[in-house]
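Repro case for the chain-ordering regression, as requested:
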Amino acid sequence: MGLKDRLKAGLTRSREAMNAVFYMGGEVDEDFWEGLEDTLVMGDIGGALSLEVADDLREQAARENLKTASQLKHALASRLADAFPAPDRDPFDDLPSCVLFVGINGAGKTTTVGKLAGAAKDAGTRVIIGGADTFRAAAIEQLQVWGERAGVEVVTRERGGDPASVCYDVIDAATREGDELVLIDTAGRLHTSPELMRELAKVVGVTRKRCVGTPVSVVLVIDATTGQNGLNQAKEFNDALDIDGLVVTKLDGTAKGGITIAIANQLDLPVYRIGVGETIDDLQRFDALEFCEALVGDES
Amino acid sequence: MFSSLSDRLNDTFDKLKGKGRLTEDDINVAMREIRMALLEADVNFKVVKGFVADCKEKCLTSEVMDSLTPAQNVVRIVLDELTELLGSTESGLTLIPNRTPNVIMLVGLQGSGKTTAAVKLAYLLKRQGRSPLLAACDTYRPAAADQLETLGGEIGVPVFRGDGAHPVEIARDSIHEAVDRLRDIVIVDTAGRLQVDEAMMQEAADIKRAIKPDQVLMVVDAMTGQDIVNVVQAFAERVDFDGVIMSKLDGDARGGGALSVREVTGKPIKFVSMGEKPDSLETFHPDRMAKRILGMGDVVGIIEQAQQMADEEQVEAAERMLREGFTMDDMLDQMRQIRKMGGLTKLIGMIPNGERMLAQSGGALDDSQLTRIEAIIHSMTKDERSRPKTINGQRRKRIAAGSGRSVQEVNALLKQWGEMNKMMGKMRAATKGGKNERRQMRQMMQSLGIDGKGGGLPF
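-- result from build under test --
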């Protein structure tokens, strides 16, 4: 199964919802536009942005004389894709590289680190994992299982240890052993806790300081089922840590991940990877146009 | 931050001032604002449509149209409607009497907070005098059973883990285990599953059939967006849960999903989960949730949060302050309290109209102010902290240099302290009076400091 097919399979439900809008009566009337707005809202793009996108598309339709469903789909897909900036560099490809994963509780950080480590190892990259989630019970054990599965070393400390010193240790180990890719898992935290955000800022600070000559990226992991609060999350994490990009997880359900568009649009953050399934290969590279085309059901 | 619904409606109606009677069009404008507010709170758009239509009908009565304060009236109607919809007559757990053990099963998506909720529920039941057993039926996520075991150990509740066995087996065995170990309630923690994963949904149904739980609770993340309707619908059809635990409500998500869950499945929200500590599982209050969804601030929430923080130690501290006066260490303590509750900005956000007032006053509230004051106090010696009056010019200079702040800032802080101490003095004088005065003083103290410790906020 090719990438696009896989992505589409993961997004089938969203596409069906879109198709229902686009084939309604075959004619573009007021109902069509209202339905379109609803569909965008349903995809978690957000009330205000949905309105804006729909209005823009309406203008464009009049200007460019777009009448058919497929023309409109195409226009909408590229309009949505425009919201995503192209990444300057892919921190998982451009080696050496050190990546910190941050996000709220239950977003899927540990699983993402495990999958990425497995994929990188399979591709022949020398990779090492840092388990800086010393807070949650059994987070270290969870990461160690992933490490064993992938055959990747996991550097960590006992539960309750200082997360910043884990980063220190893992970077030392990477330098010593010549690892090209360092993946660091951090404890999940709500963006509304200033204390925990400060702790994380320290972790990121230590890592940036310690990584001499190796670029450090901070990646925010966002659950695709997240609603409008995702924007607050991204803003707060970005303010505290200066985020480089996003990984969107759990796109294999019926959630549309539309909040990603709002985040990318407002904060100008690229999406590095998306999770469209349970297995290691299901953490895919992100292609904005493909993502949006699959979302609106544009077959062209 | 989104502005709250009442602010928005005030703005809308401000524009209509002097128009005399409101027209239906004006109400339509207000309804658009309500629609947007609900969408921003992640209420499902279909639910929003129905809800707004109902509200509009109610708002079109002459009571609102001719009112001098239409905004307040509209807000009241929306709030009442919302509270009613969220309301539930059957909150709390319904357990079958005379069944030993009672069984509670938790289900939900990955990362929704089931394991944490299971532990919190066990802790709650333990405090109610029950002896719970936790069953680790998540055999998929690596180390899930370890997590439950560690957390169970922390709260002193045993955990049953049938490593290597099938989840249905583990669930069934856990009940035998409970009988053997004389535990009277089993909380079954299951793996996270997507509602479209046929095999996993079947497994959940199988577990349910095998153990016949008294209550099946679905754990729903308060941050979930529009998709929540698909999720809960599928779970309601396949597993048929009895109620919902909303998790991660300690964040700033509006939690509009709660309304969608009620509307789509009719299932009550039984608990809300507010943090990482085991005692942070609370009963659901529809009125507070309604206010939260509309972004109207949660005064009760602030008070409770403050009460949670205030413990015996602080009552003692307050009494000591009355006896010996207010020291710099007390001031430092107060600031730490504020920070613990999420910082000034968050506290202001919880006060109705707080954000609006803040914006009007220039919005110059900065949590870093707290850090600066903290730094200054840290640069004082122990003696200076307990007797700030001894701080002379030279000492001020030293403190300023030590904390990296200016002498003026040190002066300002000392002045603040002086005022607070003066107030304390007055109270001290008053408490020497009879019982009645003492009660009055206590009330006065409470009105001055949100943590009931006396003294105004240090800024």
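Ordering looks correct now. Chain A touches chain B through 49 residues (CB under 8 Å).
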